[in-house]
Amino acid sequence: MTYLVAADLPTVPAGDRFRALLARGQILQLPGAHNGQAALQARAAGFEALYLSGAAMTASMGLPDLGIITVDEASFFIRQLARASGLPVLVDGDTGYGEALNVMHMVRSFEDAGAAAVHIEDQLLPKKCGHLNDKKLADPHDMAAKIAAAARARRHLVVVARTDAAASEGMDGAVARAELYLQAGADAIFPEALTTAEMFREFARRVKAPLLANMTEFGRTPFFTAAEFEAMGYKMVIWPVSSLRVANKAQADLYAAIRRDGGTQAMLDRMQTRAELYATIGYHDYEALDTSIVTTVIPQGMPQR
Length: 305
What we know:
Blueprint: H1 14-22, E1 28-31, H2 36-44, E2 50-52, H3 54-60, H4 71-85, E3 89-92, H5 100-113, E4 117-121, H6 140-153, E5 158-163, H7 166-184, E6 188-191, H8 197-206, E7 212-214, H9 226-231, E8 236-239, H10 242-261, H11 274-281, H12 283-293
Parallel strand pairs: 1-8, 2-3, 3-4, 4-5, 5-6, 7-8
Helix pairs in contact: 2-4, 4-5, 5-6, 6-7
């Protein structure tokens, strides 16, 4: 009903709920949600877990995805998604916000904010979107130390190691890094920016661990469906920035219409109505909760002097 009532909250830690979803037969579909409203809409559509993209967080703040936001800023977004939806959330942890101790701080902060899982990538700062060129990779043993630190710090968080090595070190390099990260304590592997179905299949044949696929638009990966990724051997798939892309495009159209028409009259049919908004956020549930607690007390008689 609402996150304010203890009985309405999940009793199982988010990481354990994420592991239970992974343990099922079918691929776990993780749509990106860039704020609490998007998280509620994804849940209403039937999704059981969510993804929080670093690119979506930074773009929401009007910033590029270059690893420049802080742990506290990311935790603000995590709390929105976890509180609003109650669903387990996989969070983009970029490069871990520093070295081993910084990674441990990130893990504990993300868990406290409600995260279920985090992925950490083997790039050097300033990191880039995985589908861009000229990425600089960390030494694999330095990255393994970060994974070991994350595994040591977590209570329930699922640790996913992302490798961007395929572009510069080839499949052999990416596989070798994945094996090292698994030995260090990673629960799953995220091979970023693979460019063909055969690359996805080969990586799955060679790396025996739960694997995550990234189906971002306008990148290096061709369009595949969740079912196609599952057939290639993947246990999770994310659509990291899709919700933000659609929302941003709609907002741009709105502002252009106001500027052109002097009002929003041409855009009403594309708007979420007040009734739809209130239904999504559970407005009347909160209102009823407030009324049930704060009841007017009517005085009985008059006090004596």
